[in-house]
Amino acid sequence: MTMPLRRVLRQAVGCTLLILLATTSFLFSPSPQTETEYCGTYLHLSSFAGFTANCDGFVYMEDARQPIHLLEPREVRQSRPLFILLGTAVGYPCTWLVQGLTASGLLPPQTVAHLPAKYQPLLGFYIGYVLLNYVVLLASMLLFSNLYRRLTQGQGSQLVLGALLVFLASNQVTKAFFWTVHQQMFTFLVPLLCLYILLALRGRTTWLQLCCFALLGGGLALVYGSFVLVLPCLLYLAWQQGKKQPLYRKAFFTVGLTLLFALPTGLWIAILGLRGVRYYNHEAEAYNQLVWLLEAARLPWWAFWREVGTRLEHFVSTWPAIGLFVGVALVLAWQLARRGELRNEPLPTILALLVGFVAFFAVLGYYRERLTFTLVPLLLCFVAAALYRLPAYPRVRWLAVAGALGWHIWQVCSYGPFS
């Protein structure tokens, strides 16, 4: 076993303990007072502990149990087939395990009987999706640890890293969605993967590798829609790699990578077409995500800008959820600007990616605090890089730890969110 592998295993164990500690403590957070404050079912583990099973989860579990549902017209999760298949892959083994434990008496039948009736046959799939939540969150934390080493040139404080990881494990998103069936753990993985692509692959990839990454990114877009943001990162690398190439060659590779990225979705649409089913994107049709711009473009110019202003106002209204992180990042940016270090890499790359993510979510047209929280992993990366470049870095380690502990205690004791 090589040393890097041992280090990754140690980090995985440490991150797992942090995830379990943070998410288990959320079970003891204040329960909702009325059913109007959440979408789903609040499951009581005891008189003082419980969690919310999100209303979206039932469709995910039913589709994972019978993936053939994805081929039905206007199926809600038709735009995310690979996530459903992941649920199938982990759900059936978990179901067989639950059945084995029940048959052996290790899992008392009355335990399952206490669940709401519609969840009883889906318990294995529920467990499988929670395991997927853990895997995605763990991958995000390991990726953040790798980025932290890059951002601090391998000289960063482990105390600061641990403190920053607390903010990934303990927050509004993990509190509301870790113990339920949903996709919100990708909130952390998508931005970190994009930053990793820009920092780790710059100048180190061949055109063949970029094509492979484009295909892989296109596949991930069938898991979670926001993975589409991987494409502009790959296109940027391609243009950087071909700086001295003629414009027509750059355009050729841009079109080529875009087509490769779109290939998995195109194949899925073709499969549906062979079944006589029209591809259905629930997010676009139910919430007008992105397509609202096309509809607004048909309006008179004054109505168009009024619609844009209304949408942006709704987007800005979600920013208080990440206000602490934005405030800290702005203070550190001001300090670095005074020292003339704000233009030093990798800070400009992080800021450019932040601008890209803000622009994407601004035009999305569907605004929720949990989506805006996607900016937080990038803000944490900026904080990590900025702190390392300040003279007071050695003195902020324990301040960061105290801040992280205070943050977690506040998350546990605060009321909501529940969905």
Automatic annotation (TrEMBL):
<protein>
    <recommendedName>
        <fullName>Dolichyl-phosphate-mannose-protein mannosyltransferase</fullName>
    </recommendedName>
</protein>
<feature type="transmembrane region" description="Helical">
    <location>
        <begin position="373"/>
        <end position="391"/>
    </location>
</feature>
<keyword id="KW-0812">Transmembrane</keyword>
<feature type="transmembrane region" description="Helical">
    <location>
        <begin position="213"/>
        <end position="239"/>
    </location>
</feature>
<feature type="signal peptide">
    <location>
        <begin position="1"/>
        <end position="27"/>
    </location>
</feature>
<feature type="transmembrane region" description="Helical">
    <location>
        <begin position="317"/>
        <end position="337"/>
    </location>
</feature>
<feature type="transmembrane region" description="Helical">
    <location>
        <begin position="123"/>
        <end position="147"/>
    </location>
</feature>
<keyword id="KW-0732">Signal</keyword>
<keyword id="KW-0472">Membrane</keyword>
<feature type="transmembrane region" description="Helical">
    <location>
        <begin position="82"/>
        <end position="103"/>
    </location>
</feature>
<feature type="transmembrane region" description="Helical">
    <location>
        <begin position="159"/>
        <end position="179"/>
    </location>
</feature>
<feature type="transmembrane region" description="Helical">
    <location>
        <begin position="251"/>
        <end position="274"/>
    </location>
</feature>
<feature type="transmembrane region" description="Helical">
    <location>
        <begin position="349"/>
        <end position="367"/>
    </location>
</feature>
<keyword id="KW-1133">Transmembrane helix</keyword>
<feature type="transmembrane region" description="Helical">
    <location>
        <begin position="185"/>
        <end position="201"/>
    </location>
</feature>
